[in-house]
Automatic annotation (TrEMBL):
Similarity comment: Belongs to the Nudix hydrolase family.
Pfam families per UniProt: NUDIX (PF00293)
All residue ranges annotated as the Nudix hydrolase domain in the record: 8-137
Names of the cofactor(s): Mg(2+)
Keyword tags: Hydrolase
Superkingdom as given in the UniProt entry: Bacteria
Organism of this sequence: Rhizobium redzepovicii
Protein's recorded name: NUDIX domain-containing protein
Length: 149
């Protein structure tokens, strides 16, 4: 049948988690973009609503309890170096409880809260697209990021 993202375009989700004007990022262990800082997310399972998948993936990867989320964009990532192709819905969460943890060390090696004006490198293409899609409330922080790029 093949693997999503590798043998045919995969359908995924990503969740930007913001708290106190900082974004939660995790460092990827596996392709695509291993070693890059990334928002949380993953693939949507068959018959699973995308919003539910975003919440599930975020809770699995962070240990946080995710409250209300809002969809902010659709992105397509074709990562030539890893031969992966993903189409993803991006969501934003400001309503989260708990403290993040490293719950999947086989997939993610490190994490942290970062101001949008002082992000770690390298950032994944997926994360850059998510930050660019943030609503106008974060626009001053986002424009500072664009000026630095």
């Amino acid at each position: 049948m093949g693997k999503p993202g590798l043998d045919f375009p995969g359908f995924g989700v990503g969740l930007v988690i913001l708290r106190d004007a900082k974004i939660l990022l995790y460092k990827r262990v596996r392709p695509p973009e291993a070693g890059y800082w990334n928002i949380v997310g993953g693939k949507v399972d068959h018959m699973e609503p995308a919003e539910q998948a975003a919440r599930r993936e975020a809770e699995e990867e962070t240990g946080l309890k995710i409250g209300r989320i809002e969809r902010i964009a659709v992105t397509e990532q074709i990562i030539d170096t890893d031969r992966q192709h993903w189409i993803s819905l991006l969501y934003l969460a400001r309503d989260v409880d708990g403290e993040p943890q490293l719950t999947e060390p086989d997939k993610l090696s490190d994490f942290g809260w970062f101001p949008l004006t002082d992000l770690p490198e390298p950032l994944s293409a997926f994360t850059k697209a998510a930050i660019a899609a943030l609503p106008s409330a974060e626009s001053s922080q986002r424009s500072a990021l664009s000026d630095a790029s």
